[in-house]
Amino acid sequence: MTLENKNVITRFPSLSSRCTTVQVLKSPKTDSSIRTIFLPKTVAEMLVEFKAEQDMTKEALGAEYTDYNLVVAGPLGMPTEQSTINGALKKLIEKNDLPKVVFHSFRHSSITYKLKLNGGDIKAVQGDSGHAQASMVTEQYAHILDDDRRLNAQRFDDFFYQHQGAEPEMPPQTAQPIPENSAVDADAAAALTKLLANPSMAELIKNLAKNL
Fold first, then answer.
1. CA nearest neighbour of 147 among 107, 110, 119, 106
2. What are the distances in angstroms from CA 142 to CA 134, 138, 154, 158?
3. What separation in angstroms does the CA of 114 have from each of 100, 128, 138, 147, 153?
4. Is residue 59 over pLDDT 90?
5. pTM here?
């Protein structure tokens, strides 16, 4: 099949005269694919180290190395083929007895972990994933958010109804002054907190819930 020249940036030369196909570098399909990614410090340091090794290879090979300004390249500067990446991933999985996944699975894993770590901040994840709409993240990863909500329900049940554990730890927060004209009275708020911590109050709430 003949490749259209539309959006083609670079055509790389064939590695063999018997090869009937060539690799090409094309511009992204959509505008949302062009985005800034904030890398973890550890990953950034690994890339800096990798770049230093790449520069040493360029200097050692001289004219034999063709610099296409690629982040990941082969020994002579050519782009790394998909089969090479898949082969390396397969060896890594077999060596470390890991679940068998395809390379694209890392994209889903990244989004999943970020949602778990940031407490479901969909907009922040959308910026990295490239989804055009935040709703697309919600639809595809709603099960992740549901898992957290399910866990919250279990914790609530354990504390208020099963009387397990101590007072739940609250994240440190900066004290906010109560406006003078606020409808919420500080003494009333303190009294309410004390009531909710009382086991008999929890039992009352439980009985009320049964009668609803």
1. 119
2. 12, 5, 18, 25
3. 22, 10, 13, 14, 22
4. yes
5. 0.55
